[in-house]
Write a structure and sequence with these properties.
By secondary structure, the chain is of the alpha/beta class. It contains nine helices and seven strands.
Length: 210
Amino acid sequence: MLTVIGNLKGGTGKSTVAFNLAVWLAHDKAGVRVFDLDPQATLTDTVEIREEDGFGPLFDVSDDIEELEQLVKSKGKKKPHLIADVSATNMPQLEAAISMAKRILIPVQPSQADIWSTQRFVKIVMSAINKKNKPEILGFINRADTHIGVRETGEAEEALQMLPNIDHLDVRLYQRTAYRRSFSEGLAVFEQDPKCKAAREMKNLAKILY
């Protein structure tokens, strides 16, 4: 099954989410195949750090949209999980990946600008999909504020729940140093410290999805 992770707005943390979910799935018997369709190639760089530092399990990353299409169309019981990290800076590949997806996962930062961006992204998704075989379209709050007195996170979540054609996931990932370190160290947050708050959050998201 192909899960596409994306949004129109930059900085939503989609590559961080994609990397951590990919590591989670790499431990699964079916394995995972990752497609980095973002020209910034942040996900590719992180996986290279993981390989250079000798961390495992490893998994392949590709930027070949034709290879992704072949895997989606291939038949067999032992197909790997598929994750695609997409970006609006490469709109043709974004739309192509969306058209093949079984699930669209949309990380949303807690701001009004991000809600507007998500609304526009969902419109792009709806125009790219096959209406007769509609994928899941799931949104959740990412980089949520950790301070209890900040209202923006709750307000953004309420706004997200009101958007049409998107289902709200009752899960939050918070703004934590562990997620930034995940990229620089080539380790998922649950590999850095299995008992930390970020690890619990990411494991919860992974279990809900898979």
